[in-house]
Specification:
The protein has 188 residues and is of the alpha/beta class. It has one domain: Flavodoxin domain (Rossmann fold), CATH 3.40.50.360. Helices cover 40% and strands 18% of the residues. Strands 1, 2, 3, 4, 5 and 6 form a six-stranded parallel β-sheet that branches. The protein has a two-stranded antiparallel ribbon with strand order 7-8. Helix 1 links the parallel strand 1 and strand 2. It is globular. The two termini are 15 Å apart. The mean pLDDT is 97. It binds flavin mononucleotide. Flavin mononucleotide binds next to helix 1.
Length: 188
């Protein structure tokens, strides 16, 4: 069977981001046959402006992310919650990519994860993300959900996921996501 190619998009640009630590732990936890790599960064995307798009076309970093999404069998968005919603940079990235012809997220399997130092672990951002992904016509994976609450005691820059229960439920989501992609995904 062909390898399942999954990309992770981290919603935080912060050096030392907990969500990036989580994203970087994923390849080692992926089931056999699933390869997870980091998506091209959205750090250099300009703020979306339709005039910019119409006058100059899509910036190269936007095309790079869109191409990576289109080529992937699945996408995992790993993001912090900002003010009960998505970080602006992530929303801006989705807004740019959503304007590209043959919209790359259409019918794309997408799984969500979030980590936060607080007790809720990013539940609210995930439900806002799901709403946006409905408009993008993505196939958003449902359960198990991954909310890494109190993440400062579970994620470590050098050691990755240090909490065994967290490692186990992330692993179980990846296994279920692989099955979801096999059932619903399509090869491009
Ligand atoms: C602008 C801003 C808004 C935030 N809002 C929330 C929030 O609504 N809920 C929450 O759990 N944490 C919130 N936080 C705290 C983040 O969860 C925390 O900074 C986290 O470490 C960010 O993720 P990162 O480590 O991957 O960069 C906020 C942080 C910032 C900078």
């Amino acid at each position: 069977m062909a390898e399942t190619n999954v990309i992770s998009i981290c919603g935080s640009l912060r050096k030392g981001s907990f969500n990036r630590i989580l994203a970087r732990a994923l390849p080692a936890l992926a089931p056999a046959g699933m390869r997870i790599t980091e998506a091209p960064s959205f750090a250099d995307f300009p703020i979306y402006n339709a005039d910019l798009q119409n006058e100059k076309g899509f910036p190269a970093p936007v095309t790079a992310l869109a191409d990576a999404v289109r080529a992937a069998d699945g996408v995992i968005i790993v993001t912090p919650e900002y003010n009960f919603s998505m970080p602006g940079g992530l929303k801006n990235a989705l807004d740019w990519v959503s304007r590209i012809k043959d919209q790359p997220f259409k019918e794309k399997p997408v799984a969500l994860q979030s980590a936060a130092p607080g007790p809720v672990g990013g539940a609210r951002v995930q439900y806002h993300l799901r709403q946006t992904l409905v408009f993008l016509d993505a196939m958003t994976f449902t359960r198990p959900e991954i909310f890494v609450a109190h993440c400062a005691s579970k994620l470590d820059e050098a050691r990755g996921i240090t909490d065994e229960a967290t490692r186990n439920f992330v692993t179980s989501q990846l296994e279920a996501f692989a099955a979801f992609i096999a059932r619903h995904g399509q090869k491009h």
